[in-house]
Specification:
4 helices, two-stranded antiparallel sheet, five-stranded mixed β-sheet, 155 residues, Rossmann fold, alpha/beta
């Protein structure tokens, strides 16, 4: 920029400036650099826009819609940040969008809901497990707490 200032002796000098702050952009960039794969990235629950996304796989099925809504409400009541994906999109679109946003956990409400089960997907490990509806809130909370502890230990 060509900026010049006078020093204490009245001599013209070029100022040198340093910034050691860490803002949201640097935190987000560092998190993405550490946690990504060919499908996108994932964020720790502490900085993710949502902790869990509840993806209703077929919006035409009333049982799935009702199950997804109840599950999202139960997760919110447990203190988690929840996104209910009730768009009229194909399941694969919903899954890919959740991966691209970096949400750490996804609950797929699909055909197994009739049996009282949903699929819990952990984005960081790309693993999934079928979980009884009555157990899923506690399991997500447990995993979030474990992740927070692991992140604290690594720091």
């Amino acid at each position: 920029m060509g900026a010049r200032v006078l020093d204490v002796n009245g001599k013209e000098v070029t100022p040198i400036m340093g910034s050691y702050g860490i803002g949201i952009e640097r935190i987000l960039t560092a998190a993405i650099e550490q946690s990504n794969d060919q499908n996108g990235f994932w964020l720790p629950a502490s900085i993710a826009p949502f902790t869990v996304v509840v993806a209703v796989t077929d919006m035409r099925d009333e049982l799935l819609v009702e199950t997804g809504e109840k599950l999202a409400s139960a997760l919110e009541a447990a203190g988690l940040d929840v996104l209910l994906d009730d768009r009229k999109e194909r399941a694969g679109v919903k899954f890919k969008d959740a991966d691209l946003v970096g949400i750490p956990y996804r609950i797929n409400v699909g055909k197994k809901a009739a049996e009282g089960k949903v699929e819990l997907v952990t984005r960081a490990t790309s693993t999934s497990v079928d979980v009884a509806l009555g157990d899923v809130v506690a399991l997500v909370k447990e995993r979030v707490a474990e992740d927070a502890l692991l992140t604290a230990v690594e720091a």
